[in-house]
Amino acid sequence: MPKTEPSPRPATQKAALSSKKVQSEKVRGAGIREVAKQAGVSIATVSRALSNEGVVSPQTRQRVVEWAAALDYKPSPLGRNLVRGRSDLVGLIVPNVAFPLYGEIIRAIGDVLGRHGMSILLASSHDDEAAERGAAQHLLRHALDGGIVINSRLGALLPLQRHSGWIHVAPEVSGLPHRVELDNEAGGALAAHELLASQRRRLAYVGAEGRESAERERGFARVVAGAGLTYRRFGGDYSEVSGLRAGEALLGGAVGGGSGWTSSAGSTPAGTFPGDTFPDGIFAAGDLMAAGVLRSLHRRGLRVPQQVAVIGFDDAVIASLLYPRLTSIRQPAYPMGVAAANLALRLLEGQSGGPLTFMPELVRRESTGPPE
Amino acid sequence: MPKTEPSPRPATQKAALSSKKVQSEKVRGAGIREVAKQAGVSIATVSRALSNEGVVSPQTRQRVVEWAAALDYKPSPLGRNLVRGRSDLVGLIVPNVAFPLYGEIIRAIGDVLGRHGMSILLASSHDDEAAERGAAQHLLRHALDGGIVINSRLGALLPLQRHSGWIHVAPEVSGLPHRVELDNEAGGALAAHELLASQRRRLAYVGAEGRESAERERGFARVVAGAGLTYRRFGGDYSEVSGLRAGEALLGGAVGGGSGWTSSAGSTPAGTFPGDTFPDGIFAAGDLMAAGVLRSLHRRGLRVPQQVAVIGFDDAVIASLLYPRLTSIRQPAYPMGVAAANLALRLLEGQSGGPLTFMPELVRRESTGPPE
User: Fold this and answer.
1) What is the CATH number of domain B89-182+333-358?
2) What is the residue extent of each domain of chain B?
3) Count of A–B CB contacts within 8 Å?
4) Which of A158, B25, B220, B348 is deepest in the core (most CB within 10 A)?
């Protein structure tokens, strides 16, 4: 209950007040003093009453709300958040916003956070360690309630004081505490099974640097070895042009650029089918590289899937736009984004996090199937 | 200069202080009192000194910084922004983050704002008027320094108190004061010129609802009419499947779904080439619809561009991934995003805005060219 005698209810004064319009909202919150004075409460009580946070009696809250309305006072968001101790902001660091798969994840995170009245504060890491560190510092200038980083290249981000950690979606570094990941090895195994089911025996893998490709290849190699086969391998960088080059190399043509892989120790031998024969089943560790492989086949006049089956990874939007429509291993990007956002909310509420692993799924389209 | 005698320099006390660690940062800024007391200045002076805003003598600033370091005090971003009266946040409302063209615009906006120490607060309008209004209300709960909205469906957004207006990128509504637009009509004209230069005479337009398609068609129709020709037209919704359906309809096959256009009054007549002849030049008002048109041609076994030339619009990432690589009218998405961000910065500084119109550009690839 208020300690001082409050002024009469504002309704009777409304006409008089509106003719002498109260100064509109200022960031420093000049108007809050007037509301506090008229309602006979402290400034802190006005803040609590209007933000619906903290203990205020219903009568006091009602009086404050009425006076705030009469005086045309709107609380400053900055001031309100200062009182609540929450910013309702979740930082999000993405390598490249324009990459379709990330767009899906961002959309999911935005949908979940939006339902909780929270917003995304976005920064780009440009797939670069220094830029990622800069993006994190940039975001931390704001009071974040949490943070999510996609494909992080940093083992640990900057020390955070208000919450226990960031959520990592598919980090390059392993073993981080709060992470949402895909079972890449299972995805590679799915791809191998699909090519074997399509009756292919001359197999090839088009991969790239980094943890994800290594895991996809491990699953692929395991299933291929289980069938008593080996495979050829060629390395790209997830771009279409690198897939085109890999395709040309695998088809035995002239290889420009020379971005060929050096096989790491212990990797699979060079393949059991003759060097002058092209593969009849190619698994690319990314849809863009698969697009390049398809183009190399079109250029040779090889029919897909009759002569060569092709399978990609990610199932990004482009997979179904390619010709023929690309069979791909789907990353459930939207559900993974939902999981990351929910994990951020859990940490914010002081609950524990822990790793979440999603299973990839085969999406069969036109680029695999029985040979002619 | 300080009015009270400050405490001795903190360096000598550092060891003692660190053993009795000061309570770490709290949002309410408990630590700032201690810094002010030790440095012999007011809390406001500490704030000004640490935020580099406002007038503080170099000596006082130095003393505050040293005491803040010794006491392990880090200013609360919320409190700092409250003092500065700026949030360094720019709201951004996008129909769909996952659409590649928008990704490019977002990336550009983030790059420009990042260089000015500002961040993007992201919300999605889901291409829907009610959702867009909700997104705006959501963002306005934060103290924004500015706002940008892409493809807005609302004529005017919510009343904003702290800045004069939002920047609109390619709004559906015309005549908004601060806008960044493409000259869509010029883009349509470019497409027509390219098809005519490719020696095509049996032309078709695949469009969609809304202002942008209407403008693109106007430019296309003008050039076609200038060459003494007419064209057939069919409507989609910017999706690939609608382009596929349009392609099948234009090729004279069975049309499923029946999403055909009703020609508006005054539109171009049905075309001068016989009804049983397929068009040899098709302009689609979006790359995804062009992808569908290409697929309909592949299904009929028609060769592109030898038998039918196809041209898209936007030059999104997918354009160069299609088979054959799609000739398209490029929207300079990145430069448009840069312009929108710069316009937001100008408005924030109290300068005037005004509309900016960008010229589209023809990007010639494999889907146009001379017939066989």
Assistant:
1) 3.40.50.2300
2) 10-84, 89-182+333-358, 184-331
3) 163
4) B220
Residues of A in contact with B320 (CB under 8 A): 240
Q: Are B96 and A107 a contacting pair at CB < 8 A?
A: yes
**Contact at CB, A120 and B119, closer than 8 angstroms:** no
The residue ranking higher by pLDDT, A90 or A126, is A90
SS3 A175: coil
Tokens standing for A152?
A: 């992080």
Most trustworthy range by pLDDT among A27-41, A45-59, A289-303, B9-23: A289-303
Which pLDDT belongs to residue A258? Answer: 37
Asked if A117 has any chain B CB less than 8 Å from its own CB, the reply is: yes
Quick one: pLDDT at residue B345?
Answer: 92
Q: Is B158 on the interface with A (CB under 8 A)?
A: no
Q: In B, which residues are within 8 Å of A88 by CB distance?
A: 141-142
3-state secondary structure A211-230: HHHHHHHHHHHHHHHHCCCC
pLDDT at A79: 53
Fold of B184-331: Rossmann fold (3.40.50)
- Cα-trace Rg, chain B: 29
Q: Which amino acid is at B322?
A: L
Query: How high is the pLDDT of residue B77?
Result: 53
**Nearest residue, CB atoms, B123 vs list A96, A103, A119:** A119
Q: For residues B119 and A362, what is the distance between their CA atoms, to the nearest angstrom?
A: 38
Query: Of B24, B97, B240, which has the smallest distance from its Cβ to A321's Cβ?
Result: B240
* Nearest Cα to Cα of residue B28 among A38, A209, A292, A162: A162
Average pLDDT, chain A: 81
Q: Note the pLDDT of residue B326.
A: 98
8-state DSSP, A21: P
Closest residue of A to B111, CA-based? A124
From residue B237, how far is each of A146, B172, B208, B212, B232 by CA, in Å? 38, 15, 5, 12, 17
Supply the DSSP string of B95-164, one letter for each residue.
S-TTSHHHHHHHHHHHHHHHHTT-EEEEEE-TT-HHHHHHHHHHHHTS--SEEEEES--SSS-S--SSSS
Our CA-based measurement puts residue B229 at a distance from the nearest CA of chain A, in whole angstroms, of 32
* One-letter identity of residue B84: R
Q: Which of A133, A321, A328, A334 is most worth mutating to test chain B (most B CB atoms within 10 A of its CB)?
A: A321
- The burial class, CB within 10 Å (0-12 / 13-18 / 19+), for B34 is middle
DSSP A326: P
Q: DSSP readout, B214-248?
A: HHHHHHHHHHHHHTT--EEEEEE-SSHHHHHHHHH
Tokens for B148, please give them. 């940008």
Domains A10-84 and A89-183+333-359 share a fold: no
Instruction: Report ipTM for this prediction.
Output: 0.72
pLDDT, residue B334, reads 95
Q: Confirm or reject contact between B362 and chain A (CB < 8 A).
A: no
The pLDDT of residue B284 is 98
Residues 234-273 of B with CB under 8 A from A: 240
B62 close contact with A: CB closer than 8 A = no
CATH number of A10-84: 1.10.260.40
Interface of A with B in 12-41 (CB under 8 A): 24-25, 27-28
Q: Are A107 and B98 in contact (CB under 8 A)?
A: yes
pLDDT tens per residue, range B284-323? 999 999 999 999 999 999 999 999 999 999 999 899 999 9
Question: Average pLDDT in the B132-145 region?
Answer: 82
* Yes or no, beta carbons of B122 and A121 under 8 Å apart: yes
Domain A89-183+333-359 = CATH 3.40.50.2300? yes
